[in-house]
Amino acid sequence: MHLRSLQPEDTAPVLEMWNATARFDPLTPGLFEEKTRGDEGFSPELAVVCVDSDCVRGFAMGVIRDTPDGPRGVVKLLAAAADRRRCGIGSALLRRVEEAMAGRGVRTIRVCESAPNYLTPGVDCRYSAAPYFFERQGYRRIGEACNMSVELSGRAFANPAMEKSFADQGIDLRRARSEDREAITTMLSSHWPSWRAEADKALENDPVTLFIAVTRAEVLGFAAWDANNRGTGWFGPMGTVEAERGQGIGRALLFHCLDDMVRGDVNAAIIPWVDPVGFYRQCAGAAVSRVFNRYEKESTA
Known about the structure:
Layout (H helix, E strand, L loop, with lengths): L1 E4 L5 H11 L7 H7 L11 E6 L2 E13 L2 E11 L8 H14 L5 E4 L11 E2 L5 H7 L3 E12 L8 H9 L3 E4 L5 H11 L4 H9 L5 E6 L2 E8 L9 E6 L8 H15 L4 E4 L5 H8 L2 E12 L3
Parallel strand pairs: 4-5
Antiparallel strand pairs: 1-2, 2-3, 3-4, 5-13, 6-13, 7-12, 7-13, 8-9, 9-10, 10-11
């Protein structure tokens, strides 16, 4: 058994191993590319494959994200072949990634929370062995996160009366255009700089999957979909500037996105890493679909 950096020819065997093991987080070739080499933080040193008898037995990938408190490491992906568990593969992969991150000045490591490019906001609670594994590796549970889902088949979300009300106030709710980029960037830089990367992805889609509320060339709020985990019905991010909250702008933009998904033949919207659970339940009938444990470790390497 030996560990080495991920190579292009590893994609198919890593996917086969991953999809046989991580049953709640299946990856397509396109999604694997997005989560690995498509991540601006991708580093070959932090993408490690375990090989034994010329077969892939495990895979781990870490990334480093800048935070106000300094660089934070994230164990973004980690899996060991189902028939090779309890053989030390997961521990060896994790240790290799942790040591590489520590060598770059990382002192705090989290699991899965690699926004803006992330697969999940934590470890799905249904992976029953995960708490035991991470706690043995020195991680502590720091909370929970959840995803919600909205069934879209046969539904329509447009609200003409709401649209007219906003129009009467001089607020235009519409799909963003290329000429809106500067105004959108200005809003995001002032309020949600960490969401700029995802908004840029939505602006690059064809058609654009970013909707805005705008008045006099000022963007008051936005909502996007298919900006992360593309092709899976992923909603978000979404935000309304603080001074404009309470008018229903967020609800209206959410409806624009959901209707756009319906037109795109998306059967269900995934709303990830949800904080306002009640908002999405009330507005769109969303239900909690997945619950995740969040883990953190202070590196001593």
